[in-house]
Write a structure and sequence with these properties.
It is built from 27 helices and 22 strands. The chain has about 775 residues and is α/β, with parallel strands linked by helices. It starts with a helix and ends in a 7-residue tail after the last helix. The chain binds ligand C2E and magnesium ion (2 copies).
């Protein structure tokens, strides 16, 4: 319904404006008429009027005042004045004497007005005479406030005043003459002051009536407009209501717009627009659905990407962990590596310094590991290292001496620095001696036999113990100290532990120097061979010589093989030195033969490490290159090696045999070989270790051992040689055992090659044998055999 309301309001407004205009126009016209009416009273064609020029000419103020009085009776006339032609006042009447005293000058009122025309000028009255008069002017003060219209009407005479004073008679005669006067004369003026306020007041009834008519007309018009509006906008309003409802339901309704008349077009348009809108919305929904689908699709792609990202992240983390493990742990044993060890020890040393506590660093090196590694192969070596690390980790972990790291007891960390070098760090020690318990456990754990690749092996470690920060304030110096102590342990018998002492450091320095010198020894040709004869008791001739290596050190002089061969083995120089020895020995044989000396055999000591698959080939090469018949060469291997040797090494020994060289087993008796065990090897010679020979008379055991070996050798059809024979007693004892070949200081110390020709002379040692037998016969211990 609001449309109708608006429409009605507009109509009302228009009606009001129009009504106001009408009322104003009618009132203004009434005002003008009323004013004109006042003026027309002066122009009435009555007698008095006709005589007025005479009264002016005669200056009869009495008559004039009477006339003015009539005029003044008219409502709204404030004053009436009679003036002569020159503008002098002849008579004047003022309705309210207290009102405006000033009358305007005639000249001012008539300026620009034709002589016979009525002059009319409106002017504002000065205060205090301008008070509104009547309720209307009070209601609309601006309408008539203090306003007066000064009206001047000329007094016309048909008689010429210049011909003398105009008389009433002449005037009347002139007016009454049938012919119209030829000319007329203005003899004076009547001036009227018409008060606007009063005039409006006099019109109030008329104005009220006009307003009434207007109100009636307006009411009628509004009623009509309302009626028509309702007719016109009723349908429109319904349409609006329907549209509003449709909008409120968000177009989710099947509304059909219906309307009559003009509004029917709008309904049709609305229906079309609504249908269009619905279709548009349906399209929009489809689009939105599609968009949702795409979003979902993208969402699943994103989820997939996120999964991939998570997987990649996990992979990176794993790789990082692997890298960390690779960087800090030994891949073979799983123990912390050198890097980890260094960092940990560095940290622990700092803590020790701060807390004034001590720790022990144990440097563990396996005795003869290189030998095992080379003879059994690297995979067996790896297995061994794993077993060793497992045992070390176990014995330190399960020790009842050791508490947990966080306790204020000892905590132990095992690391592998590389090769066969292990470290054990025992932290939070109260006393340096506590480390010995850990070391003993390690020795015990490692000392138990272990089966590697079907071989039963005994691995012994050498342990060096350094106490931090006493023996070394930083990692490097502490490790050096422990290493020195370890080396000391090795040189003093192996399979034990040694605490570091300051005196050792000089030994260590010497050892380092020795190592570096040894490396250069072969190049500088500082190595040499001495030859010790093996003498036949039956003939007194040399049946062979043993080549024994010597190192002529530029500063130290002669260094014995017992000192530098183990060092060479640890340093991996075995093959190099071994080849040099064999080659030199062969060259000596060749040289002796060339000079025509009778050298039937040279024995060369072979380091167990050297015996591998390719060994026979290398031996063959050397024999070929020196042109020595293999039958002149005997290779000495130790008994211990035989025990540890695997199938590959046995095969290697067989190959050597095939070459034509003979094989001898050195230092026999020091190991644990059994008779049947020996029969597995293609051996030619058995050398009884000198220690048994030398002590045969001190221990019954030794004596019976030598006897047993001699018997065993004979039964196995081996050549048996006794080593280290120094005295006649020993010689006679051996002779009694039917041992024929003797090696020892009794006959000769090892000699240099140039001396060989002499001792190779046939029966060279016969005098010595005779002498020994005499000495022995003269003694009390003569063996009846
Ligand atoms: P080995 O093979 O048992 O050599 C015999 C050792 O006993 C030699 O010591 C020899 O000088 C010493 N000897 C000989 N007769 C007597 C004696 O009557 N009394 C005493 N007390 N000793 C005697 P050397 O030359 O010091 O050699 C020691 C060991 O070094 C050798 O024992 C051998 O195992 C090793 N060796 C020597 N030369 C070589 C070499 O060229 N290669 C390898 N791998 N080892 C070698
Ligand atoms: Mg030997
Ligand atoms: Mg020997």
């Amino acid at each position: 319904m609001f449309l109708v309301g608006k429409y009605a309001r507009v109509v009302l407004l228009i009606g009001l404006v129009m009504g106001t205009v009408v009322v104003w126009a009618v009132s203004a016209r009434d005002f003008d008429l009323a004013r004109a009416e006042r003026v027309s009273a002066l122009q009435k064609p009555d007698l008095w009027q006709a005589l007025l020029p005479a009264f002016v000419s005669q200056r009869d103020s009495e008559q004039l005042e009477r006339q003015l009085g009539v005029l003044l009776e008219q409502p709204a006339v404030r004053y009436a004045v009679a003036l002569d032609g020159a503008g002098d006042v002849l008579a004047s009447l003022v309705r309210d004497p207290g009102a405006d005293p000033s009358l305007p000058m005639l000249s001012g009122l008539r300026t620009g007005v034709p002589a016979l025309a009525v002059g009319q000028r409106a002017r504002a009255l000065p205060a205090p005479f301008n008070e509104p008069r009547g309720w209307l002017s009070q209601l609309f003060p601006s309408l008539a406030r203090g306003k007066v219209s000064d009206v001047t009407v000329p007094i016309i005479s048909p008689v010429n005043p210049l011909e003398g004073i105009i008389t009433s008679e002449a005037l009347l005669a002139s007016w009454a003459a049938p012919e119209a006067p030829g000319s007329v004369f203005v003899v004076g003026y009547i001036a009227l002051g018409i008060d606007h306020g009063d005039l409006w007041q006099s019109l109030r009834d008329d104005i009220a009536l006009t307003i009434l008519y207007c109100v009636i007309a307006l009411s009628l018009a509004t009623a009509l407009a309302g009626f028509y509006g309702r007719h016109l906008f009723g349908s429109l309003s319904e349409l609006v209501e329907s549209a509003r409802e449709a909008v409120s339901k968000k177009l989710n309704t099947d509304i059909e717009f219906r309307a009559k008349g003009e509004a029917a077009h709008i309904a049709v348009l609305l229906n079309t627009a609504f249908a269009e809108l619905k279709r548009y919305r349906a399209n929009l929904n489809v689009d939105r659905e599609l968009l949702n689908l795409k979003v979902e699709e993208q969402g699943s792609v994103i989820t997939e990407r996120e999964q991939q990202l998570t997987e990649a992240r996990t992979e990176v983390t794993r790789t990082r962990e692997d890298l960390h493990k690779m960087a800090y742990y030994d891949s073979l044993t799983g123990l912390p590596n050198r890097r980890f060890f260094n960092e940990q020890l560095n940290l622990l040393l700092k803590i020790c310094r701060r807390e004034e506590s001590i720790l022990a660093l144990m440097f563990i090196d396996l005795d003869n590991f290189k030998r095992i590694n080379d003879s059994l192969g690297h995979s067996a070596g790896d297995l061994l290292l794993r077993e060793v690390s497992a045992r070390l980790a176990n014995c330190t972990r399960t020790s009842d001496l050791l508490g947990h790291f966080t306790d204020r007891h000892i905590s132990v960390e095992v690391s592998r620095l590389g090769g066969d070098e292990f470290t054990v760090v025992a932290n939070n020690l109260k006393d340096p001696e506590e480390a010995a318990n850990v070391a003993k456990r390690a020795l015990k754990a490692l000392g138990a036999p272990m089966t590697i690749d079907g071989h039963e092996l005994i691995v012994t470690p050498s342990i060096g113990i350094a106490i931090g920060p006493r023996d070394g304030k930083d990692v490097e110096s502490l490790v050096r100290a422990a290493d020195t102590a370890m080396y000391q342990a090795k040189t003093t018998g192996k399979n034990n532990y040694v605490y570091y002492t300051d005196e050792m450091s000089t030994t260590n320095m010497e050892r380092l120097q020795l190592e570096s010198d040894l490396r250069k020894a072969v190049e500088r040709e500082e190595l040499m061979l001495h030859y010790q004869p093996m003498v036949s008791l039956a003939t007194g001739s040399v049946v062979g010589v043993e080549a024994l290596v010597r190192w002529l050190h530029p500063q130290r002089g002669m260094v014995s093989p017992g000192e530098f061969i183990p060092l060479a083995e640890e340093m991996g120089l075995t093959l190099e030195i071994g080849e040099w020895t064999l080659r030199t020995a062969c060259q000596t044989v060749a040289a002796m033969h060339k000079e025509g000396h009778r050298l039937t055999k040279v024995s060369v000591n072979i380091s167990p490490i050297a015996i591998s698959r390719s060994f026979a080939e290398r031996v063959n090469n050397i024999l070929n290159s020196t042109g020595v018949d293999p039958k002149h060469i005997e290779l000495e291997i130790t008994e211990n090696v035989l025990m540890e040797t695997d199938a590959a090494s046995i095969e290697s020994l067989r190959q050597l045999k095939k070459l034509g060289v003979s094989l001898s087993i050195d230092d026999f008796g020091t190991g644990y070989s059994s008779l049947s065990y020996l029969s597995h090897f293609p051996l030619d010679t058995l050398k009884i270790d000198g220690s048994f020979v030398q002590d045969f008379d001190k221990s019954a055991n030794n004596k019976s051992l030598v006897e047993a070996i001699a018997a065993m050798g004979a039964s196995l059809d081996l050549r048996v040689i006794a080593e280290g024979v120094e005295t006649s007693e020993q010689l006679m004892f051996l002779r009694g055992l039917k041992l024929d070949i003797i090696q020892g200081y009794l006959f000769s110390r090892p000699v240099t090659a140039p001396k060989l020709p002499f001792i190779l002379e046939k029966g060279y040692f016969r005098p010595k044998i005779t002498q020994a037998m005499i000495v022995d016969t003269s003694g009390l211990k003569l063996d009846p055999a």
